[in-house]
User: Which sequence fits this backbone?
């Protein structure tokens, strides 16, 4: 494990809420879930409802988060049920979750708000130990952020749990701590100094088009870069561009 992952675990174990600031690919998701996994393994029979709630503003990544989380759970042969609840989840699956809640639930602020609006919300979350908020910076001074904080405050009036905020982009760390502030002390763990960035500009032999923002003109060059590395993350402006880029590279 990385140093920032171990530090996050130690601070959570000591009873603090934590804001983890680490670069993309730095293992934030696993760092957020490690305290939950360890706590659940120690007292598996104590939890008959939701143990950990993971809230992300990105509905499209819910399945990826679940898949990444199941890797260590399956490797360790742990009996932890993980499920996703978003607007894309079928009514049948949602009904099943209410009757037999998963141990770890991955959801969005809107779906979380709908769960909190239920009369049995207190029962549904009666065993909650951890609430993890991903992409924490996207909730600052936004309507979704206000909705999330209101529901967190209401949930805190029902029971005590620990908060973990995850972000790769924090221009103001104090705002992040204030956003996550609760009855517990909020600690900051930063991993920004672990890797120094090396910035270069892709030198393509193909002509850069005057209009549009598609990377298709440089597909061959991008593909060569990908082949030279084990893991590559490509950033584009929109979801549609991401799908077009994937299709081009796949071809």
Assistant:
């Amino acid at each position: 494990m990385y140093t920032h992952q171990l530090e996050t675990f130690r601070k959570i174990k000591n009873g603090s809420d934590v804001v983890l600031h680490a670069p993309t690919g730095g293992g934030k998701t696993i760092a957020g879930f490690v305290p939950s996994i360890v706590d659940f393994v120690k007292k598996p029979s104590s939890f008959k409802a939701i143990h950990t709630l993971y809230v992300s503003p990105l509905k499209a990544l819910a399945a990826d988060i679940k898949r990444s989380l199941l890797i260590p759970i399956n490797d360790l042969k742990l009996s932890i049920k993980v499920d996703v609840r978003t607007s894309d989840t079928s009514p049948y699956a949602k009904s099943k979750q209410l009757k037999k809640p998963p141990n770890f639930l991955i959801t969005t602020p809107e779906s979380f708000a709908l769960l909190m609006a239920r009369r049995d919300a207190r029962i549904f979350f009666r065993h909650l130990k951890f609430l993890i908020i991903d992409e924490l910076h996207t909730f600052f001074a936004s309507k979704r952020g206000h909705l999330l904080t209101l529901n967190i405050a209401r949930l805190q009036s029902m029971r005590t749990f620990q908060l973990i905020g995850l972000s790769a982009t924090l221009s103001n760390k104090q705002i992040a701590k204030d956003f996550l502030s609760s009855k517990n002390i909020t600690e900051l763990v930063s991993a920004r100094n672990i890797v120094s960035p090396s910035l270069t500009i892709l030198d393509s032999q193909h002509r850069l088009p005057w209009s549009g923002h598609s990377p298709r003109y440089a597909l061959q060059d991008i593909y060569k870069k990908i082949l030279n590395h084990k893991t590559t993350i490509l950033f584009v402006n929109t979801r549609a561009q991401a799908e077009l880029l994937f299709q081009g590279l796949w071809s």
Observations:
- The chain has ten helices and seven strands.
- The beta strands are 17-21, 52-55, 82-85, 104-107, 130-133, 162-167, 186-190.
- The longest helix spans residues 143-158.
- The chain has a mean pLDDT of 87.
